[in-house]
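Q: What would this chain look like folded?
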Amino acid sequence: MEPSPTIGTMQTPEDASTSYEYISPIGESYIKDAARLYPKPRKEVKRRDNEFCLVDRIHEAEYGKLQTPPEPAHKLVITLEDDNFTEEKYQVYDNYQRVVHKDLPEDRTPRAFKRFLCSSPLRREVMVTPDGQNRKLGSYHQCYRLDGVLVAIGVLDLLPDCVSSVYFLYHESIHKQTPGKLGAMHEIALAKEEGYRWWYPGFYIHNCPKMKYKIDYSPQFILDPNSFGWDPLDQATLNLLDQKPFLSLSIERQEASTADSGPETDETRCSKRPKVSNQDGQTTPRNGTRTEGHDNREEENNDEDEDIRSLFQSSMPGITCASDMEEVDLDHIALKVFSTGPLFETSDLVAWDSKSITDWPGIKASVAELIAAIGPDVKDLICLDMARERA
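A: My prediction, written as structure tokens:
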């Protein structure tokens, strides 16, 4: 399936809204008995009946928020833990990949789980915000336990202004409880409570049924692959995605504003397409076709060269071109070379100064590709982990 051009989707937690069925784990008996034993003030009851506060509602069923006695029918405990491997987590992963994705046994091994969802290279640390609040950064597992049994895991990257939802997995025994939607609500609540501002559900492929759930929340925005601006993901945008395999709303607006300037020829239409400079300084339209002088048939027939070419030679939207990357200082990116000990910088690597970002494959070219993909503005905020333990 061809992916849509929505590089990512982002939602503000302020007005997140969706509708879904959720059966409370605490049970009707507890609800009735607790209401009798711990009556709420009339003003609070009225406010609850007329206002919806996500942060308040989402935590109501958690065991730590309940008043006891009586005991609830089930105990729901949600914790934010380091993204380390445990056998308990692996069992949930194994069940989810087998039941939902139909993975073969050799594709859902402990090693696969470790490589995919554990021990992220993001460093865990605590950031002190301008108002003096502590905010966690790094990769975490949000673990959902029911009666002491781990039943779901939300894999999260906590960034300075964003809760990024990497993956969500759950045991088949709670499938009817719509755990994915429950997890999304908890993640949005986390963004709101801790001041991360945004919840980021990640890539969106419009014609992939398994990703349709991502548009259940609003208001939501998508990243324009041409202008890198955020546009509302509204019904008008969804209609355009139904019609086009590639969509840039900034280009749509530009074309609409020049619609009365006269008929377009193939040449002028091609000139309007956004272009990306490749490693050789040539330009490539973002739709993947080459400019004059390049034989597409040669590329199609040379699978080996296609597989090993540099990222700068691709037509991938959003990648900083090689000529721009030449101006970026890559010499002081933090490196973790040993599992313990001090950090190094990229310029400490042997032969770093004698290589260029066009010497591909090579470490300097690989680092340049990474920074081109994630954005040069974050190069001073990352650490490249070259000491990860092998399974």
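The first strand starts at residue 9 and ends at 11.
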